[in-house]
Amino acid sequence: MNLDIVILAAGKGTRMGSSLPKVLAGLAGRPMLEHVLDSVSQLKKTKLHVVVGHEAQQVRKTFSGNKKINWIKQTKQLGTGHAVKQAAKHIRSNSNVVILYGDVPLISESTISKLAKLASKGPSLLTFNKENPAGYGRIVRGSRNKIEAIIEEKMPHHLRRKLLKLILELWPLKLKISFVC
Predict the structure, then answer these.
(1) Which range is least confidently modeled, 31-40, 105-114, 158-167?
(2) Which of 9, 39, 135, 139 is the most buried (most CB within 10 A)?
(3) CB distance 16 to 22 below 8 Å
(4) Residue 137 lies in a domain
(5) Structural domain boundaries enclosing 10
């Protein structure tokens, strides 16, 4: 099974109150993105794509030694769906796809591997429940718990329809996708 990993690392990290790109914030003496890259590096038959935007050069420079990364530039930060759309044209047609955020440093190789296996059966999301979900996006579920949309916390209602349209445009690519939220 071929696997394409897309790591979304274009965000500003505004809530952190730092000029440093969020994925470069430290955890245990290393940037968060480095932890994610370490987990991904253990997987076989993998093509790695990292979508960068805010301070892209700084992020790329930090990981310039990793020649396995296919860097994808998101010129305008228009949200998660847009970042995924930028990566879609780089994904191999015969691959399962796992999409990760660059700021989930504690995700393990085992979890990513399980997501890749789920992707072979169709789109799936790894989500979590939080008592106070402030600051997080939302998963909109329809009948039979089917995922209908991913909505940013502060997204205006008129943009929600555009996001749903974007999501529906991505699925017909017939990519087998798993997404960590």
Answers:
(1) 158-167
(2) 9
(3) yes
(4) no
(5) 2-128+174-180
Hunting for tokens 């990292």 — which residue is that? Answer: 50
Within-domain flag for 60: yes
Exposure class string for 113-126: b at 16+ Cβ within 10 A, else e:
bebbebbeeebbbb
Residue percentage of the chain with pLDDT more than 90: 30
- 18: domain CATH number is 3.90.550.10
Residues labelled as active-site residues: 15
3-state SS track over 19-51: CCCHHHCEECCEEHHHHHHHHHHCCCCEEEEEE
- Residues 46, 40 contacting (CB under 8 angstroms): yes
Q: For the segment 4-13, what is each residue's pLDDT rounded down to a tens digit?
A: 999 999 987 6
46 occurs within a structural domain: yes
- Within 13 Å, how many C-alpha atoms sit on residue 166's CB side? 18
